[in-house]
């Protein structure tokens, strides 16, 4: 199995910054695309930023110019600057790739447990 552990969520003021981290562990063969999503009550989970295994990032329009995604080894980071109250959400880490299952190599698409980010006005 593959597990993702997020950290760094907190309370911040509008205009401030936060850094989120997510580390993957388990019987990982490949750690391909990694991403951050967020969800607010009553809404679907939405992509915030993603990054390929080669380091190519992509961002939601709401994140462009303010957030930076990066990765190092089995960890993906999300640097959030110029925070806005509408960034308040539970942030989830996502990863996909191949792991060693009981039957041999298997594909995985795994989510972290989520971490709360609250931005006050």
Describe this entry's structure for a reader:
The protein is an all-beta fold and 121 residues long. It is 0% helix and 64% strand. It is built from no helices and eleven strands. It has strands spanning 2-7, 11-13, 18-26, 28-39, 46-51, 57-59, 67-72, 75-80, 89-101, 104-111, 115-120. The strands form two sheets. Strands 2, 4, 5, 6, 9, 10 and 11 form a seven-stranded mixed beta sheet that branches. It has a four-stranded antiparallel beta sheet with strand order 1-3-8-7, with no helix packed on it. A hairpin with a 2-residue loop joins strand 9 (89-101) and strand 10 (104-111).
Outline type:
elongated
Which strand-content bin applies to the residues?
A: over 45%
Order of helices and strands: EEEEEEEEEEE
With helices defined by DSSP (H or I, 4 residues minimum), what is the helix count? 0
Spans of 5+ residues with little confidence (pLDDT < 50)? none
* N- and C-termini, Cα separation: 40 Å
Number of strands: 11
Largest sheet at a glance?
7 strands, mixed
Which structural class do the helices and strands define?
mainly beta
Q: In angstroms, what is the radius of gyration?
A: 14 Å
Average pLDDT metric: 95
Share in helix: under 10%
